[in-house]
Amino acid sequence: MRIVRDDYGVPHVYAKTVYGLYYGYGYAIAQDRLFQLEMARRSTQGTVAEVLGADYLDYDRNARTLFSPASIHRQLVELEQKDVDVFEAYAAGINAWLAKIRRAPAELMPKQFIDIGFEPLDWSAYDVAMNFIGTMNNRYGDFNTELENAEIYRSLVNQHGEAAGARLFDLLNPRFTHDAPTTVPREDWSRPAYDALAKTRAVNLPKQNAQIAFEGPLSSGFSNCFVLGRDKAEGASAILVNGPQFGWFNPAYVYSIGMHGAGIDVVGNSPFGYPMVMFGHNRSIAWGSTWGASDIVDLFAEQLDPDDANRYRYQGAYRGFEHRVEHIGVKGGDSVDYDVYRSVHGPITYFDRAHGIAYAKQRAWDGIELDTLLAWLHATWADDWGSWQIQAVQSAINVNMYFADVDGNIGYFHGGRFPRRTAGHDNRFPVSGDGSMDWQGRQDIDLANPHVLNPSSGFIANWNNKPGEGVMNPDFFFYSWSNADRIDVFNTALGEKDRFTPDEAWALIEQSSYADIYARYFLPLIDAALADSAEFGLREANEILQSWNRQSRDDDGDGFYDEPATAIFRTFIDELVERVLKDDLGNAYPYFAASGYPTATRPTGAGTNLPSGVKAVIEALDGDTGYDLLNGVAPDVIIADSMREAISRLDEYRLPVAQRPFSTRNFLGVPQAGDGELLTAPTEQNRGTENDMIVMKPGAIVGWEVVPPGENAFIAPDDDKSVHYDDQFGMYQTFGRKRMWFYPDDVEAHKQSETVLIY
């Protein structure tokens, strides 16, 4: 087996067996990202306090609550041998590099281990699986804000009464929407809403919410992808452009790899530590992914036995919780024992003992965590739509999956095992765990999972928007689907031209990165309200806004946005949101107060999106919301008053640029690099953590990517950094890209080093 590295340090593994390929993959990523891997392993398994101290005890407790070690081990034992080889070989490759480090630590030990004062441990197949489960399943498949929703609902009802409070809640967090843009055109796929709204919402609302101390707007991983078919691509049979928005980190969230042999021929990149290529191509097909956002998680309120809080009522009788004791090591202190409980519905995430309730989180993928990993792994080995879709169907978590082939076919599948809820179950709130509201199996795939091959539009586009007509909204208070959606940026651009060359397709990344995604909804309303205003200041502000190209950039590099319209508009939105929402939302207002824009002191977590509060304001200004957020005041008056206040707060219409830090902590908040490794880009761009483009032609696939800051994060004990530590950082900021070398002659022509391994 040999590993050939190209001119950006990307390893290409050549082997005759599956075991050899993934052994090489593990060996290479350990060379480049060992500290990141180690901290990801500790983050996903709850062993951070063991090396970083008691400050991470609560973190470790929470992490261990969310998975069952016995279940993961059972799934690994049940794997077919080819899949066993993937996990075991990947771990063995990491361990082979660890063995070399131990023989020469003064040269090879990553400096971060020395600085913190611990050594990396050997890996197992279980560790490889848990890196995926803890960062993919427990991130993208585990969102749930039902307790927060209940708190918001109760607050609104207390303020406005049951009927008005319910209408206001439905405006902020609608269960169904029928005018939201969909990824699959309505003529290609749709379904009726599968049940009616619950008649009552208050049966199991907690009396108080102590689970999460709310500290501001929540964000999640947002991503975009568009795929052009044979009728939209020029100079290619198909073009796939992906921008997964995981957040921005140093080392990079994703890692590039090529694997060639044993019937496998793939290249691309994947989140750190995943034994497959999530964004890339093989000889016949290309694929990508974005977060699906739909709801596959519910909370069940388990009624505790008043005589024994370790028992709960289910199907007419009390039964004991499943229980295990976790021993958590603590650096500089004594180990701590932690009790983990499960009911028939899932792990207990919160005990409200004062009111005799425990909340269990039921997740559609619980107990089959590896299904999604294997679906994506096997999909990279497929060679056509049929074999690819067979694998996509197996995904248990809520993800969007994209397909293109060399003949110009393009496809989409909205993954996830969606539960069939009992009639009357309002998925936005906890329901009784007594058995009366139990899930009734899985919904039919054809009805629950939007999918399409060669859509009538000629393209597929998604920015975490609604996948198809009739799909129920997610239950998250901070995120909903409505007729205002940032996907309109791509849908408009893709609809305005008949065909796109690869260069034109790539240029859409820059266009969307700086586009103000709110402007299209508010500028017409502002013009209607202010164009004929007698106040010069209001009229002038409107003229500036209406002549704006709706881009927010700092091309002159002075630290301020170039266009005065950016300063006016963002300040206006801040004022408008407060003016429209604060009085009506009362105590619930902090949940919806943020405009969603980054600021000079607070970057976004994963890009700018239209939060629920802003969407509610848009609907209020348009009218017909079921609740009058404007309190009888005309929209024109609200807009004029908000603009008047906004321009009074501005100094020369200048707004400091929001920069983009590349955090040294992973998305879970755990250090994955040294404190001195923080990198900061001068301007936040609303784009992918990485961007890749794959241009499909029969026999001539060309892939491009940019993976900042760089491929290799190794820092030697003497503080010497790899030459590939940040060599894609500047490229990313200027929307550059590098080739994803694939064919043997190309890899050989760009070879910088070669390693031969015997395993």
Please render the helix and strand layout as text.
Blueprint: E1 2-5, E2 11-14, H1 18-45, H2 49-52, H3 57-65, H4 69-77, H5 81-103, H6 105-108, H7 111-116, H8 125-140, H9 146-160, H10 162-172, E3 222-228, E4 238-245, E5 254-261, E6 264-271, E7 279-281, E8 285-291, E9 297-305, E10 308-314, E11 317-320, E12 322-328, E13 336-343, E14 346-352, E15 357-363, H11 369-379, H12 385-392, E16 399-405, E17 410-414, E18 431-432, H13 445-448, E19 451-453, E20 459-462, H14 487-496, H15 502-514, H16 519-530, H17 536-546, H18 564-585, H19 612-622, H20 635-648, E21 660-662, E22 679-681, E23 691-696, E24 702-706, H21 729-733, E25 738-740, H22 744-749, E26 753-756
Parallel strand pairs: 2-5, 9-18
Antiparallel strand pairs: 1-2, 1-26, 3-4, 3-20, 4-23, 5-6, 6-7, 7-8, 8-16, 9-10, 9-15, 10-11, 12-13, 13-14, 14-15, 16-17, 17-19, 21-22, 23-24, 24-25
Helix pairs in contact: 1-5, 1-8, 5-8, 8-11, 9-10, 11-12, 16-17, 16-20, 18-19, 18-20
